[in-house]
Write a structure and sequence with these properties.
The protein is mainly beta and 395 residues long. It has no helices and 34 strands. It has strands spanning 2-3, 18-21, 24-26, 30-38, 42-56, 71-82, 86-93, 101-103, 105-110, 115-119, 122-125, 128-131, 133-136, 138-151, 163-176, 179-192, 197-206, 219-220, 224-228, 231-237, 241-242, 247-258, 261-270, 273-282, 289-298, 304-305, 307-312, 319-335, 338-340, 344-348, 355-357, 359-364, 367-372, 381-382. The strands form five sheets. Strands 10, 13, 15, 16, 17, 19, 20, 21, 25, 26, 27, 30 and 34 form a 13-stranded antiparallel sheet that branches. Strands 14, 18, 22, 23, 24, 28, 29, 31, 32 and 33 form a ten-stranded mixed sheet that branches. Strands 1, 2, 4, 5, 6, 7 and 9 form a seven-stranded mixed sheet that branches. The N and C termini lie far apart (60 Å).
Length: 395
């Protein structure tokens, strides 16, 4: 047996509890291995016509004989829950196909993940899990909060020990004369759950490469460009608002473009109305820009083409513990005058680093409820009818 020499495509901004790989090809008789850690159980979701094994390091074979493994499954779709803890290896072996096998997507999702609803571009079809593509120009997210409390004894700089966030995140595909580029738009509600205050902040990241660049001279908005490790990003935040429970809020953003630039328009709704608080223009020539969900591949920087409405830490990659949460979520998209829901949603996001522990998502009365409890992310859930009257379309 030979091991594939093809490097895996790794997600640069992956959540602490999520690993995402895409676009790996395996010739017949080749295999690839993926190392991961499980502190409180993980779920594995894989699309590939291959044989899959999970084992601890002492079980790694020096030859092609896999014995005494934790998991052994064959087929195009693999969805398994692993309750053991420790360091593990997942082996994907192309001993099924007579030709090249493609790992179109592999997800390893732990308890520490951004939790809510996300469209990752895959759906069940018969006994398989198949990818799909959706284009749109606007995204909407709605939350009704009945309770929320979070605590982190050692939060990262710039965040509160009682901080939490709800994020509407989308990937923007920009078709330029020299090739495609990808940008990530974040519309975020940041909570201080002790003081019962919130603010709204937007971020724009360049997902075209792992070492992200944003030229401060080529981006226009109310905010500024900052540096986070090897990545530059744009950010702007509103003033702070007080809240009482129950609380209803909405997040929304849409993209427009012309031949010399594209613009992301960020907004939110509260009990006082709808506010479009920032318009972020990136001055690059393009032949069209739109939001994209795709389960077929990853961005140039190795990130997922997904759309997320998820709870996590307040910011700066924070993982936090939710002491209590009872929230109803809804997400939908607009393309022209056509409103539509995600075809299928998963209870975890793939792109944001902010994550949470011990949250659970399940469908209730045509929307999605997120509460504290054991997270168990298996297959995507079927879509639901969007509650489009709860948010106002931009004028």
């Amino acid at each position: 047996m030979s091991q594939s020499g093809i490097d895996s495509m790794y997600q640069a901004n992956q959540p602490k509890g999520t690993v995402f790989y895409s676009g790996i090809t395996l010739p017949q008789g080749y295999y690839d291995d993926f190392q991961f850690n499980s502190t409180n159980g993980v779920s594995i979701m894989l699309i590939s016509n291959s044989t899959v094994y999970v084992m601890i390091s002492s079980q790694l074979p020096s030859s092609g004989n896999f014995n005494d493994v934790i998991l052994h499954q064959q087929g195009r779709i693999v969805t398994e829950r692993l309750n053991e803890t420790g360091e593990f290896y997942l082996i994907v072996y192309n001993n099924v196909s007579s030709g090249t096998a493609l790992i179109s997507n592999l997800y390893i999702v732990g308890q520490k993940a951004p939790t809510g609803i996300a469209d990752i571009g895959v759906q069940p079809q018969g006994n398989s899990l198949v990818p799909f593509i959706q284009n749109f120009t606007e995204a909407f997210g709605y939350v009704k909060l009945y309770s929320i409390s979070a605590f982190n004894a050692t939060p990262p700089n710039g965040t509160s020990r009682y901080g939490a966030s709800l994020q509407l995140n989308t990937v923007i595909q920009v078709n330029t004369p020299s090739g495609s580029q990808q940008y990530w738009a974040q519309d975020v509600i940041g909570f201080n759950t002790r003081e019962q205050t919130y603010y709204v902040e937007d971020n724009v990241w360049n997902f075209t490469s792992i070492s992200s660049e944003l030229n401060n001279n080529l981006i226009r908005g109310e905010g500024s460009v900052y540096l986070d490790g090897l990545q530059e990003y744009y950010a702007f935040g509103t003033s702070t608002y007080n809240y009482s429970l129950p609380l209803s809020l909405g997040l929304m953003d849409y993209v427009t473009s012309n031949s010399t630039s594209f613009t992301v328009h960020f907004g939110f709704t509260n009990s006082s109305g709808t506010f479009w608080y920032d318009n972020v223009t990136v001055l690059i020539p393009n032949d069209g820009s739109y939001m994209l969900v795709s389960g077929y591949n990853a961005t140039g920087g190795g990130n997922a083409y997904d759309a997320e409405l998820v709870f996590g830490g307040e910011g700066n990659g924070e993982f936090t513990q939710y002491l209590s949460l009872n929230a109803t979520l809804d997400m939908f998209f607009l393309d022209g005058n056509h409103f539509f829901s995600p075809r299928y949603v998963t209870p975890f996001g793939l792109d944001t680093e902010e994550s949470a522990d011990d949250l659970n998502t399940y469908p209730v009365n045509g929307a999605w409820e997120v509460t504290t409890g054991k997270d168990d992310p298996y297959l995507p859930f079927p879509n639901v009818k969007p509650q489009i009257l709860l948010l106002n379309k931009h004028s």
